[in-house]
Write a structure and sequence with these properties.
The chain contains 9 helices and 8 strands. By secondary structure, the chain is an alpha/beta fold. Helix 5 packs antiparallel against helix 9.
Length: about 240
């Protein structure tokens, strides 16, 4: 299947799609995700808390630091859902891997889905530090190059554009390296990507050129990993506008 015809799939916290799965039975429908994004991508909803068997509505959960370890604790009953969530996350991440996602949008501040700055409480209920939701942690550990954002950051036009570009870039890279590629086709691919890379980080383009130049001396799997990692690192930088 050609790149243009290949389906682009993006994982999304289900509440952002308007599903009433939040602790209070509400949702957090996001117009950008359900509107513009849905026009060019298939959106894959995930709600870890519902999928581990918690009802809607349900009592809230917090990340709590206990004996140096972060636990997922119900705020009223104090039930510990940590291991159940970790088992679910491992299974779900494997399922999502089979879907070949090209991006993921997570719900901010969620103890399961929050990507950054999720409060972690001490035994006295005071914020001791900030961390990452348990499902989000498993997701980014398994797919370190996958474009992942929280929905609130996508309100920024530059960050939103950068996320979309990263999704398409990741999609192109995965399609290319999953095809029967050759050294010649890699050179053509790299040449075609020059302007996008130069707009973000000319030094990164030179680094990728060096990777391509020594391609015949590197095992194919290692070459693909090195090229994709360097490319996604470069494209994560927002483009710098040129002089007017």
């Amino acid at each position: 299947m050609s790149e243009l015809r290949a389906e682009i799939r993006i994982g999304v916290s289900a509440c952002l799609l308007g599903e009433r799965v939040r602790f209070d039975g509400s949702h957090k429908r996001n117009d950008f995700i359900t509107g513009l994004l849905a026009r060019f991508a298939t959106l894959v909803p995930v709600c870890p808390e519902v999928e581990i068997g918690l009802g809607t509505p349900r009592e809230t959960l917090n990340l709590t630091c206990s004996r140096g370890k972060v636990r997922l604790i119900a705020t009223q009953t104090r039930l510990d859902h940590t291991e159940k969530m970790r088992r679910f996350a491992a299974r779900k991440v494997a399922e999502l891997g089979a879907l070949k996602l090209s991006g993921y949008i997570l719900k901010k501040d969620s103890p399961s889905c929050g990507l950054e700055c999720v409060p972690v409480y001490d035994a006295g209920g005071v914020v001791a530090k900030y961390g990452r939701g348990l499902f989000a942690e498993a997701l980014v550990r398994e797919f370190p190059l996958l474009p992942v954002e929280e929905e609130d950051r996508l309100q920024d036009a530059r960050l939103r554009l950068n996320f979309i570009e990263r999704v398409f870039t990741y999609h192109r890279l995965r399609n290319f390296f999953s095809s029967p590629w050759t050294m010649s086709s890699l050179i053509r691919f790299h040449t075609a990507e020059k302007m996008l890379l130069m707009a973000r980080d000319p030094a990164a383009y030179k680094k990728l050129e060096r990777i391509v130049a020594r391609a015949r001396r590197v095992p194919r799997r290692d070459l693909a990993s090195q090229y994709q990692a360097a490319y996604m690192t470069a494209v994560a930088k927002t483009a710098v506008p040129g002089p007017s």
